[in-house]
Amino acid sequence: MAISTQPTEGRWSSRWLFVLAAAGSAVGLGNIWKFPYIAGENGGGAFVLIYLVCVAFVGAPIMISEVLLGRKGRASPINVMRSLARQAGASARWSFVGWMGVLAGILILSYYAVIAGWALNYVWLTASGTFNAASAQVATSTFDQLQQDPVQMVAWHSLFILITIWIVARGVSRGLETAIRWFMPLLFVLLLVLLGYSASSGGFAQGWAFMFDFNWDVVGPETWLIAMGQAFFTLSLGMGTMMAYGAYVPDDSNIGSTVLTIVALDTFVAVAAGLAIFPLVFVNGLEVGQGPGLMFVTLPLAFGQLPMGAVFGTVFFVLVSFAAITSAISLTEPAIAFVVEEYNAQRSRVAISLGVFCWLLGLGTVFSFNIWADAKPLFGLNFFELVDQLSQNIMLPLGGLLIALFAVWVLPQNIVREQLEVRSDGVMLLWRIVGGIVAPLGVAAVFVYTLLPLFTG
Ligand code: TRP
Q1: Separation of 241 CA from ligand 1 center, angstroms?
Q2: 393 CB under 6 A from ligand 1?
Q3: How far apart are CA 146 and CA 167, in angstroms?
Q4: Per-residue pLDDT tens over the stretch 250-297
Q5: Is the dihedral of CA 308, 310, 311, 317 positive or negative?
Q6: Is the pTM of this model over 0.85?
Q7: If we measure between CA atoms, which residue out of 361, 353, 360 comes closest to residue 335?
Q8: CA distance 196 to 208
Q9: How many Å lie between the centroid of ligand 1 and the Cα of residue 240?
Q10: What does CATH list as the number for 15-456?
Q11: For ligand 1, is residue 233 a contact (CB within 6 Å)?
Q12: Strands (E), 268-320
């Protein structure tokens, strides 16, 4: 295979566009759908605090590593790892990290599009008044019916993939930047509108207490595992997304402060989503520990009981859809950038091929909710669960672990100094301890804990 280390030409038009693009990648279903339900199932405040610790000590250093490698290598993750490993006199096999990332991106997008498809469907359902004064039974059966109907699910899944691929095909500046410029500000406005709505609903104090009152009793080792997994997923780490986006960062932006801004934005959205959702749930006397159905059953039910609920409910699902789209486009970037630079291929063609492939793979997830629900080929998991666990619990942590180790222990430290603009030795030492020891150990611990049960049953 030809080794092309041609530096990429693409650049974000400013440091702010990179911040928005990376935040667009980070902020997605992970923040709005997953974070609130996981927090809800894991006791609220205790989980939130542990999650913040994971974000600070594991998430942030890994994101810094990804962005600095991407900007230094200025290529797709596979070629970045290969060329930087060579430069450092290490094995070119480090490019394995890039390959695994490409695969993880494809796997994640395949089911991400299915769940994002539900959100698209819910824009329509809420807007048309399905949940107005609806009973709990109506809310539950609406969600069940959608999951039982492969044709409907495939239709929404297809629509989501189409939108994503259309944007991706248009390229970094015409496609990604344009979408990001529109969607991200809108997303923040919609979120603030919803926060205001929820603050005036009467359940705010209770929602606030649930999110921030700390209770050690509900904390166990699994709480740490779940929080760490969530930190990886929500920050888009471990598969080269941030490396691919980092390759387009202008030379004069400071990586440290940029990453901190991105992490802060992502955390803000997750916490704000919780604060928007829980008060509505409490004020209607509903349960917060409903799992994945929190956003698709409990919340529509809550909106349905509230004044102007159909309007704000629609706003909410539009917000979720935008957030999901800017994340989905980022899942494709490592793969697309690689094929384009390696084979000089036309971006739109590569995007379409990838879209078709992810769409096909996504059918497996669609069917896991209905016609294949009982097919459990491996480890007692169905297709969706397998793809989800393999990508999230194995590939992302492994990728993140290797990336941090590479950046701290393999890459020559003068490169790190130059990329991060670090002058003081104390800061360098701190970076090596947190990025090279604390973060990898944290990931390794989680890794072992999640893998053990697979083998010991
Ligand atoms: N972070 C996104 C979310 O929270 C999902 C996502 C986008 C992602 N790109 C990623 C997750 C790369 C892991 C790796 O919904």
Answers
A1: 8
A2: no
A3: 27
A4: 888 899 999 999 999 999 999 999 999 999 988 888 888 878 888 999
A5: positive
A6: yes
A7: 353
A8: 13
A9: 11
A10: 1.20.1740
A11: yes
A12: none
